[in-house]
Prior knowledge:
The protein has 727 residues and is of the alpha+beta class. Strands 1-5-6-7-8-10-9 form a seven-stranded mixed sheet. Strands 4-3-2-11-12 form a five-stranded mixed sheet, with no helix packed on it. Strands 15, 16, 19, 20 and 21 form a five-stranded antiparallel sheet that branches.
Amino acid sequence: MSILVPLVLYITAPISCAQQDQTNSSRRVIDVKGGPESVVWVVQLSDLHFSVHHPDRALDFRNLIGPALSMINPSLVLITGDLTDGKSKDLLTMKQNEDEWVEYKNVLDDVVKMSGLNKSIFYDLRGNHDNFGVPLVGGSFDFYSKYSINGQLGRNGRVNSVTLQIGERKHLFVGLDSTMSVGLRGPTNLFGHPTEQLLTEIDAELSQWNFESYKSISKISFGHFPLSFSASSQSGKSLKDVFLKQSLSAYLCGHLHTRFGKNLKRHHRLSHHFLSFQKFFQFNIHQIPSESHQNCSFGAPVIKEFWEWEMGDWRKSRAMRILAIDRGHVSFVDIDFKSGAKKTIILPTFPLDSRFMSTSSSNHDYECEYMLPTSYETVRVLVFSVSPIVSVVARIFDSRPGHFDIVMEAPMSKHEDSASRGDLYTVPWNYKAFEDPSADRFWLQIEATDIMGRTTLTELRPFSVNGLGARIAWTWKEFFVMGCQWAALYYPILWSLLFVPLLLLLIPKALLLFSRKQYTFKNFIAEKDFINAIVWLLQELCRVPMLWFGFFGYLFHLILFPWLVGKVYTESEDRGYMTYVGWVVKSSRGWEKHDYIGSPDIIVIVLPHLLFVVLPALLVTAALIAEKGAYRHHFLSCSAKKEDDYDSQNEGSIRCDYKSSKRSKFHFRERWIWKVLLVLCLAICWRHFKNCIALMKAYEMNPLHFPGYSLGIPLLLFYAIYNTQRA
């Protein structure tokens, strides 16, 4: 009897879990009908930014995406945030605009009708622009809940999952909304903020089919924010931790747009030799594994890795992505609609592009012969076209000779099904002939010709049947937005930018008071030492108490007092105040106070102010004071020498001093150095006032709402100019 009880519990556990999944409103299972049975495909769109000031975005979306979806016939359409723009024409005021949401709803309704797809397969997520100035989810200014497809269909949770089931295979898609619970106006609404509760829900959704470990399950997650722009929870847990734990295949996101580059992709891998700097930076697209050999023994730890693929934007790039899962192999193609509609789209599903495949697990499965051999026996490609296709040809090139030589060229056959969702073309090949230690020796290209005679070629893409990864590098802009973990970097950079000015003020002051060594212009001229020059400059600042105490007090003002006092919601008379820690605001109910929200989003105000205003102003002010001292020293020395010119014993020095005076005329008599420093002061003030005007419009302020922040640096610079204009 004691044996039967655990046995009954074991048998009934999967049944109860399955029943729970069916009744959970955030979960959905779709039985994909029709062939080909080995592959499913979905469409991703992101960052639509429908705007009343740019009607072409919505117009192009209606005219191009509706017919494209009809041609592609995806099983899901994922729209990963920033559905509307929420910006004024000058881009400075960022709050909700209901007209943009009405337009979004109308355009999406038209697209659904034109595509012939079921509205329920559309999943549109909230982005930070859709959250600008929204004090309460479900409140009067939460237009997302009213006009989005998710909102209309009652998908009100922050996590929604849908499983595409075809035969014995399951493909799980989990969408997440990590926007702020209290939506601030921009620009301090930039990061994803996953909470402990949200991470727990995501973990539960991704694990809902884990009890069916004997079946093939692919897991895809989609959200708006890249992981580089996602904060950690209060316990330090992150989305990356959950994704690695659940063996995710890929995380699809948007947010960054293609202006930063087209390789906004990042490979994540669980490493047991985790270096401290890796929580701040990842220098390469691929996270290189520390293990060089494959452990094929039974019970060896499973390799934990996943890809993060940012897709670009509709706003300017008119980008769309098709993602396919073919027997567990995940591939994608990005389409550019800037040149108009596409008549034919080709997506190779196997072999995979070796630049963007899960290389560690793929190589492990191949070397240990864990892969399904039948999934390697054919080259496969999906072809979507408005006209019937008459021929599809696969070409493989060998790049070893230094140029591309065709080593295989074969016509592909259409996979016939009684009820087809799309056209899959295949051709058998000897995949073992293409094993190679180089991940980018062999390259694949597909050519399709339709009945109208139009030919479409895919770009050449490298592949590796043995699962090796081809290395590609980020540009500096791509590394800046994808390789830097900005939420983790905020406080180290902040305190560095605060301590450096404080040290520049305190160390020279201490040397001036307690050191016998004097750092003067005369010593600098004699020794020509860089350290002496810096200390001399800063000690000259110490000799002007008004400026020294002014900068010292300003830095403490930034640490101890609010920077700004402004309106953070779409429509509200209540104001919040911002410090370097975040915003303190009242909730829409009026009685609940939210302490320090919007961190690290305030990075866009705090760090530029310290780096491009405060620190340069301090150095330029010190240079102004030092220039005045140097000019006075030069003037007095010249005056003293001219008195000696009448001494007949110093006739040789007369000519020397006269020539020296002529050489220094450009630098000292005309004071060109002071004039250059004056221009730098004006440039710093111009940048600062430009930032102030932007903040005044963003949060409906005037200078009296932030006098310390707005007036402190200009007043110190103007005093320095006044103090040094006459030597």
